[in-house]
Structures are given as C-alpha cells and as structure tokens.
Design goal:
The protein is α+β, with helices and mostly antiparallel strands. The chain contains 11 helices and 13 strands.
Amino acid sequence: MHIAVVHNAISPESTADEQDVLVQADAVEAALRQCGHDTRRLACDLNLADVRQDLSEDPPDLVFNLVESLAGTGRLLHLFPGVLDALRIPYTGASAEALFLTSNKILAKGWLAAANMPTPAWAGPCDGRRVCDVPQTLLRPERWIIKSVWEHASIGLDANAFLDGTLTERLPALLAQRAPLLGGTCFAEAFIEGREFNLSLLEDADGPRVLPPAEIVFEGFDENQPRIVDYRAKWDENAFEYHHTPRRFDFDPADKSLLDHLKTLALQCWHLFGISGYARVDFRVDAHNRPWILEVNANPCLSPDAGFAAAAAQAGMAYPQVIACIVQACSRRGVL
C-alpha cells in the first residue's frame, strides 16, 4: 500500500515533547517499509488547505496519523482527521470525534462520570482570564493536582501543581495563575495517593486486545516528592525523576483481581468513547485498592522506547508487528 505518514509540523522552538513526534515518524515509517509498504512523509500545520491539496493530488491508500497537536496546542489535534474524513481517506487510530472527546480531559471525565465509571472529583475548568467559581459544597480531598485540560505529555506537571485540600478556598486563584502554563485552560483534580498503572489496548481482527498492564515504580522518592510521572520524568534526561520511574510488568498473584478489574475498565473506556486502532488508559489505585481512571489517551506515543511499545513487547510483539496491526485495523474499517 501507499501510506502517508503525517505528523504535526516541528519548529526550532519546539519543546522536547513536541520533537518526539519525529522519533515516532521515523520508527513508524521504517516499520511500514519493513512490512512492504510504500511511504511518504508529510508535516501538518494550521495551513490545512495546503495539506488537503497535497493529499488530493497524491492520494494515499491510507494515512498513518501521528498528528498530536497543531500550532503547539493539543486542542486542535482533531482538525486534521476531520480533513481526512472530508477527503474520505482512511487513517489509523481513533476518529476525529473520539480524539476530541478524550483530549478534553474535562469532557472525558464528564462522560466517565455519566457512565458511573470511577474518575477522581474535579473543579474547573479555568481559562486564566478570570477567577473561576468553585462551589462551596465541593469536597476537600487531601490534595488537589492542577492539570491542563487539553495538553498531554505531562505538560505543566511539577511540584507546584499541588494544593493542600484544607486550602481549597485558594483553588480559584491558583487555577487562574497556572492556566497560562498549561495550554491556557486548566482544572483541579483530587489527587489519588497510591499506585500508578497504564494499560495499552491494540485492535486486532477480534476487537480490542488489552496488552500486559504496566505499573510505574517511584524509586527512591522521598516524602516531599510527589509520586507522579511529571514533565521531568518523561523528558528531562538529566533529572532524577527520569531515571527513577521505571515501568514493571511482573506482579504478585495477590494483584490478579486488581489487574483484571483494570483490564475491564480499560475495555469499557474503549467502547464508551468509540476508540479504534490503539489507545492507553492511565489509572491511579488508592490505599483501598480502588482504581480511578485519570485519562483515556486515544493516540498514545508510538516511540519504540515508550510505554505502548513496551507493553506490546511484553506481549511478544515486535515493533513492526504492532504497526502492521494498526494498519490492518484501519484497512478493515475502510472509508466511512
């Protein structure tokens, strides 16, 4: 097949998390060629008319969609698959609608709550242009964590993202203060102290398959270090957190019931949001062994050293097999 590998355009000012898409594109393109496909590369920016013209003049059999943001913001990532829908060109991964629903964390949490699925309580959103209202009846967890509504890759997550629950009345001011650092819109989420898991899903001929669960281990963290996978842990190779947050796939037999529950919830997320191709669901598990859904990522990172590829390897799949599986899922769906 003739496959166009399309990613968001990168500039010299792009941050480490943005530049990672080039690593993904290189790896995906190499895997596709290894599988016998003809490929070409295309960078997508806000000039969608040019992208549309390019794809119209040389239409691929399908597009391998690696667009994670446009103009440096994740809130626009659904625009490119919308263009592909208009052109009736098949593309890998989730639909434009599923990407929109899951990328907006507040919208996703609302859907989860409406489906009676466990997600931590939240307040907001706040766009930073004015102090948002926080209901007086809002619960007061032990701690709040401030997150971006739209941005992923742990953007803006650091030790300053926390607020003691006894100081909840300060939440509106803190949200307004941190919004500019978090893609312009943020919210507060009740922080779940405990373990952190992520479960990757890959679609095959029988539907979504849950790959081996991974737990993030916080090695050597002292009591003053929040046990989260923050920006430094993901992107700063010189940081302590980068080298002390490994993932593990080996579990005690006592964890079987919990892992089974996580797998069930991950599949429920897949069907709730109408995801296709591949995805990852992030969880925290509290001291009472209760899981809480943090995020549903409908286009997780496909870098060979990232969590999705690691989970697939744990399942015995080589990287080219994973990419072939994603392409096959797209081919089965065809054009809507």
